[in-house]
Task: inverse folding
């Protein structure tokens, strides 16, 4: 008899129906071995078939109907409207990857003819092909029970690349995961596998010999641990971990408007602040204008609403983060809502400012002058995003930020990550473990592709 | 006073003129800090200027004339003709990367317009840009004092990407390295730096906070150690290490020709076998034809010539490798030249067969039947190349090999790696530390580029 676990309703703390088996190491090995079998590889080998399976999976998820949304709402506490949007994103993403592999040329070979007359040696013909890297282990995220979970972006991009997938279900939404997994498996069969469990199950997965690469979205602690586990295996494998960041917003005088104040607070408190791209820092230069802007933001934070957090554990971690900030010497509370908090600080707080508090918590960083703001920007650890309010394209912050972040947003807010061929949801460490890749958008597929050169292949027309 | 070292002439064992300073940790820090200064970044920011510098560097290396070839010959023992070709490859590579960044579109942005009318939310404009990853540390290889050294493929691709470079000179050819470095620095100034020293200097370099990525060509032991060092830094960085392999050649009956026997031995003994792509394994199915093929190869190995190895240490390691093979139970000596050796074995020798013996040493693996050959191919650790002699494009070995190698060669030999947009000089571990990249060919630049998305940038025409 294997151990089991269950989900709690984060709104009530009550146990939800359903029991889920915690995987043993043998279960993990079996799932990975099944995923890596010749028959699953064969089932993924044809691009058109793969694209159709991605579309079939999207349709099967939609066919789950309201029951899926209800389950995800019960398990995550996220509002039905948000989950409905997230389902659309999830299915849209599966279809976008289907289109991408069929139409964008991303999987096309590059064929270069040879030249037998080249001196001093003949030039052989060369063809560069794109091949799937191998079985991809995907770690579902707590904060997106659909779009960054069983059939989320990591899974969709890996399957699009032709890689079988083994998902570690996030234990906060096992029921949702089982429903989505059923839909996914109806299209992909054994080429998709899922296991339930905690950190130990994750470690077995990352060290399994049948696993060739890992996609992870979550905390810095867990992401870095898995990255190191992958790198230190006898046969090292790449672990792409997206570990969040504080996503600073730089408010220049022309951007210190009432509508941007409202926009900032809306982005900060969206989904109880539980987004990787939550704008946790607001940076400006000391001035009456910036003070007025911050005063308006403070007012809006005080009157902001409340939402259920994903779990009691995440709510407790949020409270602990607030405590840590409150007790920092140079940090003081500016405004307090039922859930949201706004603090003030100066750049001299340093590293403290860049520790993400997962939830609707903002810190206003007031710089003496533009030079200090530039220096602050240059000192930032890697971030998923940085936002500029009221800056021209040529502002001196822009090149500094491009060195430190994956996405620079002008006159908008970082939450709401478009699924696009031009998106980057990545960035220098510690935002991710590899700044050369993204986990959202069509180029997310590049994490799972490796090149193979075929030299001097004989023609078959003999 | 810093410690110094000197080079030995591998042909005579005599000390060569010239003394080179072994870097202290402070020297390494200074080099990396200089490489990462705002002025070096500014000097590399414009693509056309960078391309011109690459061309200037090529011209400056050529302007060193015969003196460079003489120095490289003295330090490496490699023949003048080979070094002349290697210089052409090195300069051609610098120019090819200049053309590549100007004409191929590899650094182009992808701009997608926004749509203010999209429902439910407006679509922002998005632009995907390619940015240099940061300072790249390059480790010169022992076996290519020009083409995989100070101004070799790693350096050329990194500079083409816009990354400053710090080279760790290979201690077997310091004089050659200083000459090439002078030429390179005449074009690139402080954006290129070099340090001399051994393993300790390499470790300081990989752990320096100003270094963002590493390119290495060399042994599995050293490459893996540096890879792990990079992954285990507080801020992990990617280390692309190309660590060689045994490059199996599968000889099918139609390929068991006299000319292929000669081609195999020529490839095996080329440059005293000191190539990453040296074909150390010859695999076939037991048959009179294969026996005759192997007999011809044995004859050619017995009558093959001799060449100076790169160093006394490499020659000693070669001898040790031969001893290891000779003493393996199922391995026996088939043929012996003054330097080259040919052994026979069966697939049951397993892992032993895949330990590279750096030098002109081949092992003939005789399989019972095609099924055993297929199984053997599927069991191979990752390889840079695999070669098929006499196979059709549709042979059952082809898909198996594509899973295990970076390049599949038909009816040719793996030595001689074209610098081409379709080349892959890479492969699954242990051939390299990351199967998604190559160190030769134009796509080598992708190791040093990271994407940055610019969202909703205001137009400057206000």
Result:
């Amino acid at each position: 008899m294997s151990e089991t676990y269950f989900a709690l309703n984060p709104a009530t703390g009550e146990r939800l129906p359903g029991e889920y088996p915690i995987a043993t190491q043998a279960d993990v090995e079996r799932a990975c071995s099944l995923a890596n079998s010749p028959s699953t590889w064969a089932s993924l080998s044809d691009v058109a078939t793969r694209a159709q399976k991605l579309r079939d999976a999207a349709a099967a998820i939609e066919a789950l109907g309201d029951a899926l949304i209800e389950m995800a709402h019960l398990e995550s506490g996220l509002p039905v409207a948000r989950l409905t949007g997230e389902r659309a994103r999830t299915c849209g993403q599966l279809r976008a990857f289907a289109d991408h592999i069929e139409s964008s040329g991303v999987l096309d070979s590059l064929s270069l003819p040879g030249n037998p007359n080249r001196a001093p040696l003949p030039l052989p013909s060369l063809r560069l092909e794109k091949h799937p890297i191998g079985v991809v282990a995907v770690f579902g995220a707590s904060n997106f029970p659909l779009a960054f979970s069983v059939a989320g972006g990591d899974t969709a991009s890996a399957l699009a690349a032709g890689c079988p997938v083994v998902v570690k279900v996030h234990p906060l939404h096992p029921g949702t995961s089982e429903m989505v997994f059923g839909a996914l498996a109806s299209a992909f069969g054994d080429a998709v596998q899922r296991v339930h469990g905690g950190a130990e199950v994750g470690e077995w997965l990352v060290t399994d010999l049948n696993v060739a690469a890992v996609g992870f979205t979550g905390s810095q602690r867990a992401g870095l641990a898995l990255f190191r586990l992958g790198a230190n295996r006898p046969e090292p494998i790449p672990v792409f971990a997206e570990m969040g960041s504080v996503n600073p917003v730089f408010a220049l005088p022309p951007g210190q408007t009432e509508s941007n104040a409202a926009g900032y607070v809306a982005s900060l408190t969206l989904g109880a602040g539980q987004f990787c791209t939550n704008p946790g820092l607001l940076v400006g230069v000391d001035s009456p204008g910036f003070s007025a802007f911050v005063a308006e933001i403070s007012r809006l934070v005080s009157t902001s609403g409340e939402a259920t957090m994903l779990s009691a554990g995440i709510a407790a971690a949020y409270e602990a983060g607030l405590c840590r900030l409150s007790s920092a010497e140079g940090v003081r509370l500016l405004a307090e809502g039922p859930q949201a908090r706004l603090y003030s600080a100066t750049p001299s707080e340093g590293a403290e400012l860049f520790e993400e508090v997962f939830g609707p918590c903002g810190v206003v960083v007031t710089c003496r002058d533009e030079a200090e703001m530039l220096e602050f920007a240059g000192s930032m650890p890697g971030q998923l995003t940085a936002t500029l309010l009221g800056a021209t394209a040529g502002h001196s912050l822009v090149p500094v930020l491009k060195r430190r972040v994956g996405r620079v947003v002008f006159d908008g807010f970082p939450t709401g990550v478009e699924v696009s061929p031009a998106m980057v949801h990545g960035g220098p460490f510690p935002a991710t473990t590899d700044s050369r890749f993204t986990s959202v958008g069509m180029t997310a597929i590049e994490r799972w592709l490796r090149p193979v050169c075929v030299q001097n292949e004989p023609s078959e027309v003999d």
Notes: The first strand of chain B starts at residue 4 and ends at 5. Chain B has a mean pLDDT of 96. Residues 80-103 of chain B form the longest helix (24 residues).
